[in-house]
Structures are given as C-alpha cells and as structure tokens.
Amino acid sequence: MIECKNIVKTYRSGEIDTQVLKNISFKINDNEFVAIMGPSGSGKSTLMHIIGCLDTPTSGEYLLDGQDASKLSADELADVRRQKIGFVFQAFNLLPRATVLRNVSLPLVYAAVAKEEREERAKETLRASAFPEGFWHHYSNQLSGGMMQRVAIARALVNNPALILADEPTGNLDTKTGAVVLATFQLLHQEQGRTIVLITHEPYVAEHAERIIHIRDGEIVSDGVNRNRRLINNDH
Amino acid sequence: MILSDLFHETYAALSANKVRSGLTILGIVIGIGSVVAMISIGQGAAGSIQASIQSIGSNLVMVQPGFQRGAGAGPVSAGRGSATTLKQEDADAIQKEITQALAVAPEISRRYQITAKGKNTNTQVIGTVASYSQVRNVQVDLGSFISEQNVRALSKVAVLGPTTRDDLFGEGTNPVGETIRVNRVDFKVIGLTQSKGGTGFTNQDDIIFVPISTAQRFLAGDAYVTTISVQAKDAGSLATIQQEITDLLLQRHNIADAQLADFQVLNQQDIVQTASAVTNTMTMLLASIAGISLIVGGIGIMNMMLTTVTERTREIGLRKAIGAKRKDISLQFLAEAVTLTFIGGLIGIILGWASSLAVTAFTGIATKVSLPAIALAFGVSAAIGIVFGYYPARRAAALNPIEALRYE
Ligand SMILES: Nc1ncnc2c1ncn2[C@@H]1O[C@H](COP(=O)(O)OP(=O)(O)OP(=O)(O)O)[C@@H](O)[C@H]1O
Ligand SMILES: [Mg+2]
C-alpha cells in the first residue's frame, strides 16, 4: 500500500527554488491499477521517483507498506526497490551490450541469486510474457523498440514485485505495440493481482487503468475511478 | 552480487572498449615492465659485485697503507694505498702475533711494461707469497703457483693470468717454460692461473704473480708492501682479527691515536656491506625512476575509469534503480580498474623479465629476476588499481539514481 501525505518536492537551481510537487496526498491500495496523468512538466516523473523510492520528498511523508521511506538510507532504499518495485522506463534503459536474458536477470544479480536459478526465473518471465525464444540471446540493442519495452517489462517482473511503476511505457512505441504493452499491464493486474502505477500524459493510455489521478503544475486536480475504461482483449 | 557476476560484468565492460582498455593496460605494462627490468638489473649488478668481492677470497681482512692525517701532513693526499707505510716486517709480525689468522699473504703490486717474444703489454705485477693462492682464492690452471722455496730463493719465476697470457703468447697457448721480461729482468713462466672472469673494477685475469722477495729486490728496490691479506678461520673472527691487527700495527708504528693511523684495516664483511649498500641505493634509484612511469600508468587507469563512469552514468542509474547498492557499484568499477592493472602487471612482469634477459644476452650485464621483485611488482600493480580506481568507483557509487537516469 502506498500513501503520500502532503508531499512537497522542491528543486533548487542556483538561487531559485522551484516547487515541482505542491502538497500531494493520495493513497493507492494493493491490487489497484492507477494512472497518473498530466501534461509535460507537471511533475509526474518526480512523483514516480518518490513512489519508487528513487528519491525522497522535500517535505511530507511517503509510506510504502506503512514504512516511511524518508527515514531510510540510500542502501536501504535500494533494498526496498529490489524487493518490492519493478520499474519500466520510457527510455527502456536496457544494458546495450548484454543479452536479453542477461538484462532480464539483472535484478536477480543484485539479489545474489545463483546463476542457474536466475536464468530459470528470467526464462520463465520471458515465456510468460510470450517473448519469442529466438531472441533470448540477442543483444538488447539489436531489438525493436517494442521488443525492448517487453524486455524491460520482463525485467521489472523477474523479482516478482508487488508494485510496478511504469513511466510513459508507451511513449516510444507506435499505437499497436503500445496496445500490446498496455494489455500486458492489464493482464498483470487482473490475473496476478499486482499494483500498477502507470504514468502518462495521454488520456488514451490513462484510460486503460481503473483509476486516474490527474495532476497539473504539481497539484492533484482530480482523482477518481475511470468510468470509461478501455479493456484490451487478452486472449493471446 | 556474486563473484562470478563481478567477473562477468568486468569482462563485458572492458571488452566493450578494447582499444581503450588495451592502451590503458599498455601504460601499466610499461610501468611494471620497467620496474621489473630495473630491479633485475640492479640486483644483477649487486650479485656480480658480491661475487667479485667473494672471488678475492673468503673471510679476508686486508691491511693497506693509508695516508697520515694530522700535523705536517698538509692538505694534499697522495691517495689511499699509495703511501709506503707498510713494511715486510709488519707482515711478518702479523704472521707471528695474530694467532687466529689462518694465513697471511703480503703483496707488493705495481704496473710494469712486460715484453715477451717481441710482444709487450702493460699489466699489474704482484709480488707475493705461496699462501696468496689460498688466501685470495687463486686457482692454478697449468704449472704451479709461487712456492715458499721460490720466495726464499728469490727465484725469478712468474705465474701469468689468462688475459696476460693471451696478450703475450696468444689465446689457448701453454706459457709454462717461456720467458718474460719485466723491468729489464727476465722471469721464467712457471704457471697459469684459472680465469676469475673479468668483472668488477679491476681485471683479475690480467695479472702476473712473482715471489715477493724477488719483486722487492729486483723490481721495487725496497721492502714495502702494498697489501697484507689475512685470512680468518671464519666470518665470526673477522672483527677480532681486524682489531688485533690494528692494535699491533699502531703499536709497531708508534701511533697512540687510532685516528692518525697510517694504515687501514678493511674487513671483507664491511666491504660487502658497503658494496651492497651502494648497489641497493642504485637499485632503488633505478626502480624509482621506473616507478614514475608506473604512476603515469596509474593516472591512465584513473583517467579511463573517470571517463567510463561518465559514459555509463545512465547504466549506473539503472543498476541502482533495480536494486544495486553503493557497494555493488563501487566494487564493479574497482574490479575493472584492478583487472586492468592486473593484466598490465602480468604482461609487464613477462616483458620486464624478457627485457632483462635480453639485456644480459646483448650487453653481458648480469641481471637477476627475483621472486620478491615479481611479487612486489604484482602487489604494486594491484595496489595501483585500487588506489587509482578508488576515486572513480566512489564517484560512480555516489551518483544519485534519478540524476543518473535522466543524464543525457
Ligand atoms: N533534478 C532537477 N532539477 C531541477 N529541476 C528539475 C529536476 N527534475 C525535474 N525538474 C523540473 O521539475 C519539473 C517536473 O519534471 P518532471 O520530470 O517530473 O515532469 P513530467 O511530468 O515527468 O514531464 P514529462 O511528461 O515531460 O516527462 C520540470 O519543470 C523539470 O524541469
Ligand atoms: Mg516524465
């Protein structure tokens, strides 16, 4: 469970302080599929970094499963990320000189999982996301954008995290491949009961979630159930 | 993070930029290689100097004339060993009084022009006694050495060193029975010494031995001696003998203050120690000059690692985002730096070894590659990796994951 209480994030560049997040408060329960939507520069990524324990708020409290993240050290935050959170980034952020399998199993490397088990789990995850086996040993920079994002999703899932954070996961993809990615999230939510936080500036993408939190200029303008939810037919 | 993963990551990272890694390694190769080569040259020199000191005999105390300091001596000195303060009687007294001495061999040495069969050469003529061969470790190859009988009888006989033989009679010839002329006196050659190897400051093979009595009478015309070599029973009695001889000669020369002695008594151990101090200093000097290139190599490592950290900022951010701790990141970059220096160190040792062998092969300078030197080189190269890799690794580990992720 995620709880943000009066979160403020201020960036200081030179003499000028910019308040990127102004008094953000909300709760996300387990097994929710939430989209955080807002225009460019509204502070979505900043918020995701706080939710993802990559950053701490300037003031306010962020609780992940009841634990105050601002009280944790950098290494403890790394532990939390490794155990509880899977990230999917807009820019994929795969290791270019590593194979698909290596990329997917990378989080397990830092969890000190033995090589055999690691590969087994990475293969399982790739199989589950129907990633074509012929590409498992390709270097990640030899893949198409859509495939890269699927590798990134598999990497986010390999640790079996309860919370998946995706920052503009479809931003670099065409509509069709974007749809496949969104379908994957819906499936993960419906069938595996994971909590998914999807960050986007596109209403169309946000409409795949159950609930939409709308932010603008660092403030929540609306937060509520998505009434016209788009469901993608998941029978592949 | 498991060790095998560390190797995997290191290999992947270093092989991704082979040229850069190779050049950085080259810097370390040159550094370690020259350190190994320089130390081996220094130690080789030390070894050959020790050997040449040992080749003049073992457990030796040498008495040489000195110059008298003090009243009336004036500021000009004729140089050590050139004074005529030691007499034959001093040698006889040492022989008689110093009971711990195994053997005493006085000698008078001077350079003369030698002629034989129309050829001539200028060489060292040493007038000495029979025990010289034992005391100074001179082995006879052909014929015999000077005998006590020769000394008593003032025989005009000579024993040649191999180089002198080569100069006068040609290489490989047997000179025994031939006649040589020294200072207008004819000597009959009765022996040839074995080669000691012409290393060191004086060539111990370019030499002629004659009976000391003959030399004093017919060549020098006086009864002075230039060196008295005394052999002790063992290394332990060297210091005692040295002291006893000093006391004896001070008394004989009527000198009360040991500071004003007109002779000097050298102990072979002291000579060895002085020589090794000199060669150690030389080795250190050579190694430190080579060490400078090692430091330059280390800076190369640091430079490359800093560039790598900057280039891979996004990757570091990602690794942190998926759960890498500071330690994981710093270890990864440290491992890369140490691997570079390790490989460089390994190749450097082989290259340094090879080049010191080449130095020996082409110049004849003795070299000695010792295990401690190699171990040191290895340790130093690993330490260079840690020292110069530490800062870049720390910088990588300290990167803020978000800053690193948004880095373009
Ligand atoms: N490290 C930083 N230092 C200074 N300002 C920053 C920093 N990170 C973000 N900002 C500013 O905070 C604001 C919000 O940035 P953020 O990346 O959260 O926006 P966003 O909603 O994700 O936008 P986009 O849709 O373009 O990704 C921007 O104006 C940005 O310039
Ligand atoms: Mg953003």
TrEMBL record, chain B:
It is found in: Cell membrane. The keyword Transmembrane applies. Keywords: Cell membrane, Membrane, Transmembrane, Transmembrane helix. It is a multi-pass membrane protein. Its main location: membrane. Residues 21-247 form the MacB-like periplasmic core domain. One of its GO terms (cellular component) is plasma membrane. Residues 288-401 form the ABC3 transporter permease C-terminal domain. The chain crosses the membrane at residues 21-42, 284-310, 331-353, 373-391. One of its GO terms (molecular function) is transmembrane transporter activity. InterPro entries: ABC3_permease_C, MacB_PCD, Macrolide_Exporter_MacB. Belongs to the ABC-4 integral membrane protein family. PANTHER family: ABC TRANSPORTER PERMEASE YTRF (PTHR30572:SF4), MEMBRANE COMPONENT OF TRANSPORTER-RELATED (PTHR30572). This is Multidrug ABC transporter substrate-binding protein.
